[in-house]
Design a protein that fits this description.
Layout lengths: L6 H30 L2 H8 L26 E5 L16 E6 L5 E7 L16 H8 L4 E4 L4 H8 L2 H6 E3 L8 E2 L9 E2 L2 H11 L11 E3 L13 E4 L9 E6 L4 E5 L2 H4 L8 E2 L1 E6 L2 E3 L6 E3 L3 E9 L2 E9 L7 E4 L6 E3 L3 E6 L5 E3 L1
Parallel strand pairs: 1-4, 2-20, 4-5, 8-19, 13-20
Antiparallel strand pairs: 1-3, 2-3, 6-7, 9-10, 9-21, 10-11, 11-12, 13-16, 14-15, 16-17, 17-18
Length: 353
């Protein structure tokens, strides 16, 4: 009489066979995958299959269901050597960088994120041209005083004055740090920005003309890794901007000395797009103050996806958006994320190597 095989041995054999076949199949699939699955096909399934129903107007970033876009606030941020490292700058969705006295640059950082930011600054004084860029969002303007011309523009326009939050008249929205010397020690935070929104904005609906945005280029379509974009603002090289392209992450990383590389938290300053804007920049007085043309049109360069695009910029008036167009007249579509706009006297001030 034949003896029936032990049922436990049979089950064990079947399970072992299934596991072995699965392992072999995975190994073969990984080895043969390049022949069956294109890079784009892979990216679509790994990154672009996520659906999004809500995008931030400021930078085109997809918002989760629990996230919201807050009323935009612009903050004048110091870039003098004594002001570094910065705080909170990495949270800005858009940054304008332009020269002030002595060829030192200053930042107008635009915030609409609902993320908590413990410290933003150092906050410094405003110049007329920064007002023009802030008002295209109808944004509140955080600053500590300003040039006589800038303060005259604010006091002479009721609409701008309602959006203005000068530290000299709104001290509760700022504080002075004890670990920095004045005037490089004034800070604010997301909590204080929120308090200002509640106090100053009667209708907090976010409503401004957005730029056009797109998804990142596929890696095979991007430019060379490690390219450096250098933007010259003056004879003081310490205040020139340098950006290194990371092809894998498709970002531009701010470079410079150690203090210009990171924020006080260690966060890197990164951008998805770099826009270089050429315009008239004149020194107008003995203090080396600048007059910068913000209304009109001119040449521009757009750096995104590791490539350079020749473009033009246009801005009709103080309250209209600055826009960029390619040489065919089509509006530039920016990658979703932070954009830095570098203001120079000529596009030849920006080099790529």
């Amino acid at each position: 009489m034949k003896k029936n095989p032990d049922i436990k041995i049979v089950i064990a054999f079947v399970l072992f066979s299934i596991i072995a076949l699965t392992a072999v199949s995975l190994i073969l699939w990984q080895g043969l995958r390049p022949f069956f699955v294109s890079e784009k096909f892979s990216i679509i399934f790994s990154e672009k299959s996520k659906s999004c129903t809500k995008y931030r107007l400021l930078d085109g970033v997809c918002l989760a269901d629990e996230e919201s876009e807050k009323y935009p606030i612009t903050v004048m941020i110091d870039n003098k050597y004594e002001a570094r490292p910065w705080s909170g700058l990495s949270f800005a969705g858009l940054v304008y960088e332009a020269p002030v006295e002595g060829g030192i640059t200053r930042f107008l950082a635009v915030f609409s994120t609902d993320r908590e930011i413990d410290k933003i600054g150092p906050v410094r004084s405003v110049r007329p041209y920064f007002i023009d860029w802030a008002m295209e969002f109808g944004a509140m303007l955080f600053h500590v005083g300003g040039s006589p011309e800038a303060l005259g523009i604010i006091s002479g326009d009721t609409d701008i004055k309602e959006l203005d939050l000068d530290q000299y008249f709104g001290g509760l929205y700022y504080w002075r740090s004890q670990d920095r010397i004045a005037p490089h020690n004034v800070y604010t935070s997301s909590e204080r920005l929120d308090k200002a929104r509640l106090a100053k904005i009667s209708d907090p609906i976010v409503d401004f003309d957005a730029w056009q945005f797109k998804e990142d280029a596929y890696e095979s379509e991007r430019g060379d890794d490690g390219k450096i974009i250098a933007v010259e603002f003056s004879n003081y090289t310490a205040y020139d901007a340098k950006w290194r392209y990371d092809k894998n992450k498709n970002i531009y990383i701010r470079e410079g000395d150690e203090l210009a590389l990171k924020e006080d938290t260690g966060a890197l300053i990164i951008a998805k797009n770099i826009a270089v804007l050429e315009t008239n920049i004149l020194i107008i007085d003995s203090m080396s103050r600048r007059k910068i043309t913000t209304i009109g049109k001119g040449d521009a360069l757009i750096f995104q996806d590791g490539k350079k695009v020749e473009a033009v910029w246009e801005k009709d008036d103080m309250w209209s958006r600055l826009r960029f167009f390619d040489k065919n007249g089509d509006e530039i579509k920016f990658n979703r994320g932070t954009t830095w706009v570098e203001i120079v006297s000529g596009v030849d001030k920006a080099t790529e190597k």
